[in-house]
């Protein structure tokens, strides 16, 4: 049986969801037996590949780069998973949403040259940090801040077995 | 005794009971949020909506609808599950409920209901409104970002403490809970500082100062415990 082609990406988030993924510990061996990690912050591949079966995205859509990459990921992935609360709800990055982006950037960088204000070397900060499904179609939602490793595994195992992943009750808890 | 049916189970109830009381006695779960034993029912949140088959499927709030002879009540169905989830999603979209670093994370009735009712995401656009936090009271704080306007604090303050400090100001999504006539809570002359509002609040909107993320546990049952010990004049 060919391995499932899995990708992960990291948008506006703290990387905690990826840390929780690594906390799968010995279950990572079973994962590696069934899946191939074709793109991820933890593997050194620069371009998002074609024909990806499942992509897990951590973080909210916060910059012009996320917007660009999200469109590419959606186009090249069969299934897209909102991985963790920031991707599902906006969560912590969305704290800035009631405040105008210019005000946020000047508060952080002062009055001089402000990275992210206009396009250029640094991607432009979007007016609001949004959940993935506000921008593209999302197939599955895996909430939690971060989702605990057991919840991630429950989800991935179903997915790797070719089943429609189902989470219920305590496995849907935000926070 | 009145006999009715809830989810096709025959149930008996006293005439002064509500559909919610009868369902509870029969062990049938109906989700609630604005309802709190010890306070008068207001039917504000609509999460306890049930369907009455012999009223052409009319939807009524179980917490505020008295039992009637022969009622055929549906308490759980696909239609109700979808309605309840939609109501929850609207509550989440309306203000900034960020569970991850809320004082009530892990002890929140709104968060619990989202998990129970299978709300894996919110289908409505979030409003992200800029809302204030009032920390002027020496013991407590109110964070309007977490408030769902259930009015449990308003009722606990007026019906149990008798201080009538809290009230609603504004209309619709712009409604805010206000102390006295919009004074900072710390300046409210009527507030006795009893904290019943904080214990009655189902979310992290009202909290005790000094609580960090996830540290604010609530004791909403204290309201019923008080009213049972100190029954209000009947009639």
Helix-strand pattern of chain A: EHHEEEHEHHEEH
SS-derived structural category of chain A: alpha/beta
Question: On the 0-100 scale, what is the average pLDDT of chain A?
Answer: 96
Q: Label the overall shape of chain A.
A: globular
Describe this structure in words.
The complex is a heterodimer of chains A (175) and B (235). In chain A, 31% of the residues lie in helices and 22% in strands. Chain A has one domain: Rossmann fold. Chain A contains six helices and seven strands. Helices cover 24% and strands 16% of the residues of chain B. With 235 residues, chain B is an alpha+beta fold. The mean pLDDT of chain B is 96. In chain B, the strands form three sheets. Chain B has a five-stranded mixed sheet with strand order 2-1-5-3-4, with helices on both faces. Chain B has a three-stranded antiparallel sheet with strand order 6-7-10. Chain B has a two-stranded antiparallel ribbon with strand order 8-9. Chain B has helices spanning 19-25, 78-94, 109-116, 152-161, 196-200, 221-229; strands at 2-6, 9-13, 49-52, 58-61, 72-74, 133-134, 140-143, 166-169, 176-179, 206-208. The chains are: A alpha/beta (175), B alpha+beta (235). Chains A and B meet through helix 4 of A and helix 3 of B.
Write the SSE topology.
The complex is a heterodimer of chains A (175) and B (235).
Chain A: E1 4-10, H1 16-22, H2 27-34, E2 35-39, E3 52-58, E4 61-63, H3 64-76, E5 77-83, H4 85-89, H5 101-109, E6 125-130, E7 140-142, H6 149-160
Parallel strand pairs in A: 1-2, 1-3, 3-5, 5-7
Antiparallel strand pairs in A: 4-6
Chain B: E1 2-6, E2 9-13, H1 19-25, E3 49-52, E4 58-61, E5 72-74, H2 78-94, H3 109-116, E6 133-134, E7 140-143, H4 152-161, E8 166-169, E9 176-179, H5 196-200, E10 206-208, H6 221-229
Parallel strand pairs in B: 1-5
Antiparallel strand pairs in B: 1-2, 3-4, 3-5, 6-7, 7-10, 8-9
